[in-house]
Design goal:
Distance between the termini: 75 Å
Family: Belongs to the glycosyltransferase 2 family.
InterPro entries: DPM1-like, Glyco_trans_2-like, Nucleotide-diphossugar_trans
Keywords: Coiled coil, Glycosyltransferase, Transferase
Number of helices: 8
Protein name: Cell wall biosynthesis glycosyltransferase
CATH class: Alpha Beta
Shape: elongated
CATH superfamily: Spore Coat Polysaccharide Biosynthesis Protein SpsA, Chain A
Number of strands: 9
GO molecular function: dolichyl-phosphate beta-D-mannosyltransferase activity
Largest sheet: 7 strands, mixed
Number of domains: 1
Strand order of the largest sheet: 3-2-1-4-7-5-8
Helix content: 40-55%
Strand content: 5-15%
Length: about 290
Amino acid sequence: MKLSVLIPAYNEEQNIGKCLAEIQSVLRKEHIPYEIIVVNDNSTDGTAEIVLEKIKTDSAIHLENRTLPSGFGRAIRSGLSVVQGDVVIIYMADQSDDPNNLVDYYRKIEEGYDCVFGSRFIQGSHVENYPHFKRFVNRIVNTVMKYMFWTRFNDLTNAFKAYRTEVIEDCGPYHASHFNITLEMSLGALIRKYNIAEIPINWYGRTWGCSNLHLREMGRKYLSTLLMMFFQRVLIADDLLAERLVSNTQSRKSRSNLTQRIEALESQVDHLRHQLNRDLEEDSVRTDHS
């Protein structure tokens, strides 16, 4: 089972080299077949050049250079269009994610789950340098979503998640252009009733550079995506109900057909048994006469 690690990157020259080295080290140690796709989202620094140097020593690393307009969601969509693995994990270039959690995700998928959602807010997780205001907003948004979608998952806005490729194909195409794609992807899998595991993860605040997530600008985009997915949930619920009714009807028909076949076989067996008894009686009579 091949793993595709998808890394959107914008002006991450101080992080991307170490980020790739850590991922390589962990996945090789665990003997996990992988590809790493770095999507360079119109960086103006040396991000692309550093990735190209890495490619010289590891053919499993690939670079996708995007043209304008930029956007985290656009970068994710570009990467998803070229992945070749059976499992896709979105990974941040700023080293905020823990590469060891890649293995945790992969093993959960091996257990049979369709998706794995990491949470920074359940027992066993570890978080460092999370700005207080962003954490406050995060908790409000995720609490609202828990009630809107009646779900136990409490970190749906986090991009660091794992999906089987067929889940992405089923839930797509995606339309979000910015960080709201994290909602579109996670909620898309959730409302389609895929088998999802939640595990605690480690998260470390950015140590170099500036975050590209601006809450004020993203508020409207998050809200529009949230409403879109809520109404999509209602429509999908109707479809799922219709499919379940059809499935139940087909199941009843199958059981009825099976019952008829069993009854027919029992009738044939009875007929053969009676025929055999007659033959035995006739043989017995002939033997007596002789």
